[in-house]
Design goal:
29 helices, 18 strands
Length: 752
């Protein structure tokens, strides 16, 4: 025992030395040093050691605040204001996890609980004394004829129950103290936070008070030192004490995955990877306009960055903008479109070399049974058998049997071939007549031709908005079957989004097909997302609830009052979560990931919101912007080139003449006296041009002749060209100045 105490003292001394509390360490270690050393340190040596230690950087200097001011009603640490509250009154009953609201409160706060076990024997004696006193009080009131006191009788009953529980060992008694320290940058904000916290606790009948004149002691009590300097406690037995434990799991943040939104409890980020769950399936429930398509499109856009292939069945043309933005493939499935899907097409080998002959054909025939039941309606067992034989015979006509190896390389039959077989089969005439509307009637052209669709892009969208309501479940069945064949043939991380999944759930065969995909998707690294707003139809289906239970990820956004009760039963929601869904805004709801769930706010960047928004005003503004950009681009392409201005010989000669005149004026001003004026001269003959000027004009002629060669050739000849030489433009422009004519240069023999 003594050795253990010494080791504890040495450890505490080492901790004090680490924090810089060297006086305590020196005092503790001094006894050990005396036993091992003979010579004591001199005063100079101690002073040198002290100065050396003062120059060291200590851990205490790093973690300690720069300054602290202790006031009667608050504590100031650097620029941070702090105030400590303690509980003085508790209600008779508390519900479990009541402290989670305070923990998730949007404030910087420290919450500390001190729990002290009490001696049961002493408590039993005290309770016995209290019970005796309360019984005496009750009898005295009865003897005096005074009306009974309900509070006294309730206290007596509680004391009796506690005595029984303590005597049987089912409960123990403790003392608990609850302290809260709130922080804020401003004193006014601190007062508001204090009021909010007191109101939050007051709603549970828990009364708090500030630790007036004890702020420093209260602040130290809420620090992780384990020191209770306030010592304001309340007696509690085991059950209410257990209810005070903060069972809270509001954080849903992983070190990898995509950002889904912001945690509304504590403003943390909800970052999650759905493929880390037991299965990657997801179910989304919300009313119309609550943001369910916005949420899934945001998930798709961010999942594409992690090399995830995405297939979407789009019933309302909501994913086209996103598909075109990321460079995906967009198929419009309708009776008028050129895209066709052959439901008889066989996939590649499902399991590679392990696949046995006939395995692919059997799987295709089973899926065709479900599809043809959607087309034909309810079948009798006899008709079902005839249909099965007709399907096998149809494949046999193309050389595909159960013994055929690698049947996917052969040309598959079409629905028209099945109709021909049924017409020649006894008992199949009525089914052939029903299927004729898909081959020759009003529904012809969609499912009776070979497939011309390639699923070789990272994102593929199938738009079925233009299909009639009767064809939508059939088209969704065929599209999902085509995607499922591609998924089984190649192992890769993929997502399949089925918007408005209630179209499949309302029919038993298609609902069974979807349920089978949901159960088997995990084995092929596939996550299926079902989106619906008709919660009643989805839940009431015998396959709707199993699909939900096989989805590890659920997103519940704003709900209507008529549907929230069913969701509460399925997801075991509390009353608070139920009212949260009823009062949620667009993009707000509950996010379930396995056993954890949080309240979430879906957020997107402005660029993401522009791409994935489904609001009509946003879509209209985006289309107008695209239209303006196209018109601007077209105008720039059609704009004529800027014409180049042609310089004539007259303009060149005039420019050179102006420059010479300006230079001559400058020379005349330098030689002529400034105050004398030349006498006026009447009708003075113009002087002949100087040789340099004539030379400049000749140079201008050469420049103009090169620039306007075409113009000179197009000039018509003069009528008197035989009598006098042809004048150049420069000479013609000089004619009004009465310049004497020059002799023609370069005359040929025989001219004029």
């Amino acid at each position: 025992m003594k050795t253990h105490i010494k080791l504890t003292q040495v450890m505490l001394a080492a901790m004090d030395d680490l924090l810089g509390l060297h006086f305590a360490a020196e005092k503790t270690l001094r006894g050990l040093v005396k036993k091992t050393t003979v010579r004591q340190l001199s005063e100079k040596e101690k002073e040198a050691i002290r100065l050396y230690e003062e120059g060291l950087q200590k851990t205490l200097d790093i973690i300690a605040p720069a300054g602290m001011i202790v006031k009667p009603n608050e504590l100031i640490l650097n620029d941070l204001h702090a105030r400590t509250l303690y509980t003085v009154n508790w209600p008779n009953y508390v519900y479990p996890n009541w402290l989670s609201e305070e923990i998730n409160f949007d404030a910087h706060m420290n919450i500390c609980q001190f729990i002290y076990p009490a001696n049961s024997k002493v408590i039993m004696k005290m309770l016995r004394k209290k019970v005796t006193e309360m019984r005496s009080s009750v009898r005295m009131l009865e003897q005096r004829g005074i009306v009974r006191d309900p509070a006294l009788e309730a206290a007596l009953q509680d004391a009796e129950e506690l005595r029984d529980l303590l005597a049987r060992g089912r409960e123990k008694l403790f003392q608990m103290g609850l302290y809260l320290t709130i922080y804020s940058d401003d004193e006014e904000k601190l007062k508001k936070l204090e009021t909010d916290v007191e109101s939050l606790l007051g709603g549970k009948l828990i009364i708090t008070k500030p630790a007036f004149m004890q702020m420093e002691h209260g602040w130290l009590s809420t620090m992780p030192f384990g020191i209770d300097e306030l010592e304001i406690n309340r007696n509690m037995n085991t059950s209410p004490l257990a209810a005070c434990f903060p069972f809270s799991s509001s954080d849903l943040t992983d070190d990898h995955g995509i950002l889904y939104g912001i945690n509304r409890h504590n403003d943390s980020l909800v970052i999650f990877d759905r493929f880390d769950l037991p299965n990657a399936n997801a179910s989304v429930f919300a009313t119309s306009g609550a943001g369910k398509s916005f949420t899934i499109k945001l998930e798709i856009l961010r999942s594409l960055m992690f090399d995830t292939e995405v297939y979407v069945v789009d019933p309302e043309n909501e994913y086209r903008e996103l598909c075109e933005t990321v460079g995906g493939t967009y198929f419009r499935i309708s009776l008028e479109s050129s895209n066709h899907i052959n439901p008889f097409e066989l996939p590649k080998s499902i399991r590679g070399d392990e696949a046995t002959p006939g395995e692919t054909l059997r799987a295709a025939v089973i899926n065709l049974h479900g599809l043809l039941k959607l087309m034909l309606g309810t079948l009798t067992p006899a008709e079902d058998g005839i249909l099965d034989k007709a399907i096998l015979d149809t494949y046999a006509l193309k050389g595909i049997t159960l013994a055929t190896e690698d049947a996917a390389t052969k040309m598959p039959p079409t629905l028209h071939d099945l109709v021909d077989v049924l017409e020649t089969t006894e008992g199949g005439e009525s089914m052939a007549m029903t299927l004729c509307k898909f081959t020759e009637g009003s529904y012809a052209g969609l499912f009776d031709q070979q497939t011309n669709i390639q699923l070789d892009n990272q994102m593929v969208v199938f738009q079925i908005r233009d299909l009639e309501d009767q064809l939508r479940p059939i088209a969704m069945f065929v599209i999902i079957n085509l995607i499922w064949n591609r998924i089984r043939a190649e192992f890769k991380k993929r997502m399949l989004v089925i918007d408005e999944a209630w179209n499949l759930i309302q029919y038993e065969d298609s609902a069974r097909f979807l349920y089978g995909l949901v159960k088997r998707a995990r084995k092929y690294w596939l996550g299926i997302t079902t989106i619906t707003q008709d919660v009643e139809d989805f839940v009431n289906s015998p396959y709707g609830k199993p699909i939900i239970t096989n989805s590890s990820l659920q997103i519940l956004l704003k709900q209507s009052a008529s549907a929230v009760d069913n969701l509460q039963k399925i997801f075991y929601l509390t009353e608070g979560e139920k009212y949260l869904l009823l009062n949620s805004d667009v993009g707000q709801g509950l996010f379930f990931a396995g056993n954890r769930h949080v309240a979430i706010q879906i957020v997107a960047s402005p660029k993401e919101a522009q791409i994935i928004s489904t609001k009509p005003e946003d879509i209209l503004a985006h289309k107008q912007q695209e239209k303006l950009e196209k018109e601007r681009t077209a105008a720039e392409k059609k704009a004529p080139p800027i014409p180049q201005q042609m310089v004539t010989a007259d303009e060149v000669a005039t420019t050179l003449q102006h420059e010479e005149d300006a230079q001559q004026e400058v020379k005349d001003q330098d030689t002529t006296p400034p105050k004398t004026e030349p006498p006026p001269v009447e009708a003075a003959p113009a002087e002949p041009p100087k040789p340099p000027e004539a030379k400049r004009v000749t140079e201008a002629e050469d420049v103009a002749s090169i620039a306007n060669a075409t113009l000179m050739q197009a000039t018509p000849p003069q009528t008197n060209a035989a009598k006098k030489p042809q004048e150049t433009p420069a000479e013609a422009s000089a004619e009004p100045e009465a310049t004497p004519p020059e002799k023609p240069r370069g005359k040929k023999k025989g001219e004029g």
